[in-house]
Amino acid sequence: MIYQNIKFHNVVQLEKVEEFPGLRLQRFAPEVRNALGYEGDERGRPRTHSSVGCEIRFVTTAKTIRLSLSALYGEGDILVYKGNFFHSKHRIKEGQIKTLELDESPKLAKVKPEILKGHAFSTDVWRVFFCFGYCAVYHGIDTFGHMIRPPKEEELPKINILAYGSSITNGGSASIVSNTYIYQAARRLKADIMNLALGGACLCEKEVVDFIAERTDWDLLILELGVNMRNIGIPSKEFRKRVEYFLQALIKSHPKKPIILLTMFPNSGNYLIDENDPLAIRTKEYNTIIRNLHEEMNHDQLYLIEGDEILTDFSGLSCDLLHPFDFGYIEMGENLANKIVEKVEGV
Known about the structure:
The strands form 3 sheets. Strands 1, 2, 5, 7, 8, 10 and 12 form a 7-stranded antiparallel sheet that branches. Strands 3-4-11-6-9 form a 5-stranded antiparallel sheet, with no helix packed on it. The model has no long low-confidence stretch (mean pLDDT 97). It has helices at residues 30-33, 44-47, 167-170, 181-189, 206-213, 227-232, 236-253, 278-297, 326-343; strands spanning 2-3, 6-9, 13-15, 23-26, 55-60, 64-72, 76-82, 85-92, 98-103, 126-130, 135-142, 148-149, 159-164, 191-195, 220-224, 259-262, 302-305. The protein has 2 domains: 2-155, Galactose-binding domain-like (Jelly Rolls, Sandwich); 159-343, SGNH hydrolase (Rossmann fold), CATH 3.40.50.1110. Helix 4 packs across helix 9, helix 5 (206-213) runs parallel beside helix 7 and helix 7 runs parallel beside helix 8 (278-297). By secondary structure, the chain is an alpha+beta fold. It is built from 9 helices and 17 strands.
């Protein structure tokens, strides 16, 4: 989305709410946001308002930029990059407008230009990346009379990956979102990420499925499914029905695009002492359903990757034995990137 000569990445709506200042960065259309839930569990509706993975991107000749932002429904971090290069980290608190004063790094102009080239992003591109925990609100930018424009196609990655999943794909328990597995994989693949993960609320509702299937702005899709539906007790038969509809919709709409289908990453459900615990039973059943659906679809662009091939070190998890910490996420990102290169031609 382009607004005021700025590219809002991973944003489908800049929402203006009457009596509230600024524009809210929304990853999901309102008709999707307001339709989520399962049997009275509607946690997905407020969680769609998280701006995790959204970015403000622009190119300017200004040496100093002032960018005014705020947070709703929580607080969190903002990471600023020039292209691939980390620039600075900032914290915004709920309900307070914060103006970031960003200065061009003089060091970038002092090195040989060729050392800055060949990366996924051009160093001319400012990238303001929003982490999890809040809804980001845009209030304005001042380049002090200097030109500002959205990045050109050649200044951005050539591959666009869309990811849908749980809080694991959202970056839960990571010290910083850029350490999480989809961003680590994307960096190794020189790819861009559109993150549509919903922490605790990845339930594959028809509205979400149709929203993703109708999009044409991705080249490769990653699906991390199961753990949220397992945790709230969705029966295996219903899980199969939802995942089957998801895969059929994607294959019908995008028959030539690669889809990465993951079984659940190793977690406590795989190793419970009580093997008759419903969590243990659903873990096995869900993974079997994912494998069976992959086989039944018999589609040459649907690639199954086992979760235990991605997270191979169980100690990469945090103490909740579900969410990885940084060490686990980084290993997962490297392994996933390698698997994608191995399986998908042209990546």
